[in-house]
Amino acid sequence: MTQPSSFLGYTCSLCGTQYAPHEVVYVCPRDGGNLDVNLDLAAIRRSPIHPATSATREPSLWRYLPLLPVADPGGNGTPLRAAGWTPLFSPPQLARRLGLPRLWIKDEGRNPTASFKDRASAVVVARAKEIIAPVLVTASTGNAGAALAGMAAAVGMRSMIFAPRTAPPAKVAQLLVYGAQVILVDGNYDSAFDLTVQAAQEYGWYCRNTGYNPFTVEGKKTAAYEIWETIYPQLTGLQHPLCIFISVGDGNIISGIHKGFKDLQALGWIDQMPRLFGVQSEGSAAIANAWKARSETIQPVESHTLADSISVDFPRDGIRAVRAAQQTGGAYLKVSDEAILKAIPALGSAGIFAEPAGAAAYAGLTSALDQGIVDSEDPILVINTGSGLKDVKAAMQSVRPAPIIEPTLIALRKHLEATR
Ligand SMILES: *Cc1c(COP(=O)(O)O)cnc(C)c1O
Ligand SMILES: [Zn+2]
Fold this sequence. Notes:
The chain has helices spanning 41-45, 92-98, 117-130, 143-154, 169-177, 189-203, 215-220, 222-230, 252-266, 286-292, 318-326, 337-348, 356-370, 392-397, 409-418, and strands spanning 7-12, 18-19, 35-39, 88-89, 103-107, 135-139, 158-164, 181-185, 206-207, 243-247, 275-281, 331-335, 380-384.
């Protein structure tokens, strides 16, 4: 097993027990707590990572290799090297409409398999190469699976994906096209999750599950580094910290972004932490409920939301996700499916096509503005976590259907007059 010398081991997020890299694989053996990866920050501080040199570095998350607990996975010339370093937009019309002079949108739909999940899957694939795990498995509502299938295919590794039979067809199509072995379970995401944990043990597969495999957070934290490199230089002189809106299902993305900023703070590379705002669907709000109750006990819900990527009964990274908002002066917001549907064409009007879970973050921003939780003084970033092409059915629900007319000028004139 080769691993970078900066990877020191793990600390349990619940009981604080420390483990060496070879001692554990997934969660804390004592209490099932999520494990935080420990890095040798002193060694990293001596590494050549610095924004001033960024122009010479790779346009992907691999530009942060010295900050990751994996060795270089290779895969040059493949989509594995294209995960991350997603575009950052500052749409002027949206900013004006919302009365926000400093508004950014980071479009994670532009990852190789079209969601934020590529960050996690890329790093888990790198880890699998190191520990020589020939078969990767994950439970997924769709995107984590597509990301794992795509990243594994890129470097010729095998993947097994378990998804609910109700997953949107575009996501299932991706899994199949990437050549994964796909198993649809007659149940929800939570039941697929439990089955993969058992199956991984039974068959010796390496399990990527979100909020279970400690390397997913390490991949997801790279979004924080990109925000640091691209937005932080624009914040100098501002009193108000950056407010980041993130949609939340299992809570692993918000935990990852929190981890990334904690790393930067520990390295002394940022003075100010951003405030992290988690956005959940009203119908799948176990983490928002715990945050509101100031509790670290996550009560499962029976989730119902059209935003399938954040439809989770029992979030697997709930405690760290509660802390992400609590420790940064952020908050949790709950949004309705109607508000999520409205957010899709709102982002669309700026040329950004989001799937429902991605649009939920924008719906959370509008709700926070309405409630006065944030205002025009605050610099604000919304993360669109997935492409609208992932769920065309929901996209069509969010807009009025197009008219069908006879292909004549007369018919066109009649239509234009009728709808004027
Ligand atoms: C997975 C996912 C989320 C939520 O991430 P968690 O880590 O489960 O909180 C949000 N949006 C999209 C598009 C996703 O695929
Ligand atoms: Zn523990």
